[in-house]
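Saturday, quiet lab. Running sequence design on the C-alpha cells for the scaffold JK sent over.
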C-alpha cells in the first residue's frame, strides 16, 4: 500500500485506538516545488473544522516517555493513560536500559530525535506509518546547515547572515548529538553503532522543520524551546506569510485545525503561517524560500557593519540601554534599533540619545547622516553580494546554487529599493 494511504489508515484508529478526524473537503497533493500539501476539494467556509489528531498520534516529550515506560521498571510521573494509547507488545531490550532520571535531562530535540532514529530501525513500530512519510534528508537539502556539515565549499558563497544562522544551528545540532552519545554510553550502549550522525541529522532536521508549538506539563520543568510536538497529517500543511488556518490544542481531543479567517475554494492549497519569518529564516530553518517579492517579512541585517564603526563608549551605551546588535532595515525604512545605533555613532554627548530612545524626540539632526551611512553600507553589501554571485555562476547549476542566487537576489531587491527610496 502507498505510504500516504497507510498513514491515513493508521489515523482512522481501531477498537483500541481513537480515530483522527479529517474533513472530506481536503486531500493530500504532491508537487516538485513544495512537496506534500493539503488542498481543498470543495468550498470551505471560515472557521470550519478541518482536522483533529488525538494525542495518541502526537510525537513529543510526553508520548515518547510514555512509550518508553513500557520497556522499563520506572513509572512516568504524568498519568496520561486515558488519553494516550500505548500498544501492548514486546519489551524493547534497548529501551530497558534507559533510566528515567537521565532521560529527563534530555531536551525535546534530543529525546524525540533519538527516539525517531531508534524506532525507524525497527521492522515493527507503532510509529511506522508516520515515520515512513517523513521527508528524507535529500528532501530537506535546502537547509544550508546540511551543506556546512558536509563541508560543501558552496556554503561560503551564501550571504553572511545566512552563514551565521546556519553555523549556530550546526553547533546546536552537534551539541545535541554529543549529549545523546553521552546518554547512550552512560546507560551502557554503543552510540556509534546505534545512532550514526547522519541518522541523527535526519531526525533532528525532521523535528526542526515540522515541529509545532505545544506546551509540556510544568512538572517536567523544561525550557521554552522544548515545547513542541510532531503532528502527523497536520505537518503536510505548507507555510504562507499571511494568516490562513488556525491551530489549537485541546487537552482531551488533541491537535485541531480549522480554516480560520480564510475561506477556501475547490483546488486552493490550505496553508498556515509558521510565523513572521524572512526568507533567510525560512531557508535556514525549513529549507525553502517564498517566490521573489512574495515575503513581506524580508529584511536586511546590517549589524556587523555598524558594530565595526562603534567606539568603546558608544558600544557600552548601547549595551546599557539594550540597543546593542540586531540592526536591520527593510526596502523602505530602517528599524528603530538601527536608527538609535546610527544616531549614537554621530554623538559625543550620549545623553542626547536618551530622548530618542524614550520617544520624546524624533532624532531629526541625525537623520541625514544616518541615511548617508546606510547608503555606504548598502553599497558595500551590494559589492560583496555581486562578487559572491559571480563565483556561484562558476559552479555547475544545482538546487543549492539556485538558492544562493535567490538569497542574493533578495538582498539586491532590498538594497536597490532602499537606495532609490
Ligand atoms: C511542515 S512541512 C510541510 C509539508 C511538506 N511540504 C512535506 O512534503 O512534507 C514543512 C516543509 O514543507 C516545505 N514547505 C513549506 N511551505 C512551503 C512553501 N510555501 N514553499 C515551498 N516549500 C514549502 C519545506 O520543505 C518545509 O521544510
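Result came back. Writing it out in full:
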Amino acid at each position: 500500500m502507498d505510504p500516504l494511504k497507510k498513514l491515513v489508515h493508521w489515523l482512522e484508529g481501531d477498537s483500541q485506538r481513537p480515530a483522527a478526524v479529517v474533513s472530506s473537503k481536503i486531500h493530500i497533493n504532491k508537487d516538485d516545488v513544495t512537496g506534500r500539501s493539503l488542498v481543498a476539494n470543495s468550498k470551505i467556509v471560515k472557521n470550519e473544522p478541518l482536522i483533529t489528531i488525538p494525542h495518541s498520534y502526537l510525537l513529543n516529550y510526553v508520548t515518547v516517555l510514555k512509550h518508553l515506560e513500557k520497556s522499563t521498571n520506572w513509572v512516568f510521573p504524568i498519568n496520561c493513560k486515558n488519553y494516550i494509547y500505548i500498544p501492548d507488545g514486546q519489551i524493547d531490550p534497548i529501551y530497558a536500559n534507559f533510566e528515567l532520571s537521565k532521560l529527563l535531562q534530555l531536551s525535546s530535540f534530543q529525546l524525540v530525535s533519538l527516539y525517531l532514529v531508534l524506532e525507524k530501525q525497527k521492522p515493527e513500530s507503532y510509529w511506522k506509518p508516520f515515520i515512513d512519510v517523513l521527508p528524507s534528508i535529500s528532501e530537506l537539502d535546502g537547509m544550508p546547515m546540511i551543506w556546512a556539515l558536509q563541508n560543501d565549499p558552496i556554503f561560503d558563497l551564501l550571504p553572511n547572515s545566512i552563514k551565521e544562522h546556519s553555523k549556530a544551528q550546526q553547533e546546536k545540532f552537534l551539541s545535541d548529538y554529543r549529549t545523546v552519545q553521552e546518554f547512550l554510553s552512560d546507560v551502557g550502549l554503543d552510540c556509534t553503532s546505534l545512532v550514526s550522525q547522519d541518522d541523527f541529522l535526519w531526525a533532528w532536521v525532521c523535528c526542526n522543520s515540522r515541529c509545532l508549538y505545544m506546551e509540556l506539563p510544568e512538572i517536567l520543568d523544561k525550557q521554552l524551546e522544548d515545547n513542541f510536538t510532531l503532528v502527523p497529517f497536520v505537518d503536510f500543511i505548507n507555510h504562507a506569510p499571511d494568516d490562513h488556518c488556525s491551530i489549537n490544542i485541546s487537552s482531551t481531543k488533541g491537535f485541531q485545525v480549522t480554516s480560520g479567517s480564510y475561506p477556501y475554494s475547490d483546488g486552493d492549497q490550505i496553508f498556515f503561517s509558521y510565523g513572521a519569518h524572512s526568507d533567510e529564516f525560512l531557508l535556514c530553518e525549513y529549507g525553502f524560500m517564498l517566490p521573489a517579492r512574495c515575503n513581506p517579512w524580508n529584511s536586511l541585517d546590517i549589524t556587523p557593519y555598524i558594530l565595526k564603526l562603534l567606539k568603546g563608549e558608544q558600544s557600552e551605551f548601547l549595551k546599557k540601554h539594550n540597543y546593542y546588535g540586531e540592526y536591520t532595515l527593510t526596502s523602505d525604512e530602517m528599524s528603530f534599533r538601527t536608527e538609535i545605533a546610527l544616531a549614537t555613532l554621530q554623538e559625543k554627548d550620549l545623553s542626547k540619545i536618551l530622548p530618542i530612545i524614550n520617544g520624546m524626540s524624533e532624532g531629526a539632526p541625525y537623520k541625514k547622516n544616518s541615511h548617508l551611512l546606510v547608503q555606504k553600507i548598502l553599497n558595500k553589501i551590494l559589492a560583496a553580494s555581486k562578487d559572491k554571485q559571480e563565483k556561484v555562476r562558476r559552479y555547475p547549476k544545482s538546487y543549492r546554487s539556485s538558492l544562493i542566487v535567490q538569497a542574493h537576489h533578495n538582498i539586491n531587491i532590498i538594497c536597490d529599493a532602499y537606495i532609490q527610496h
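Notes for JK: The mean pLDDT is 95. The longest helix spans residues 364-393. Ask whether to fix the surface positions before the next round.
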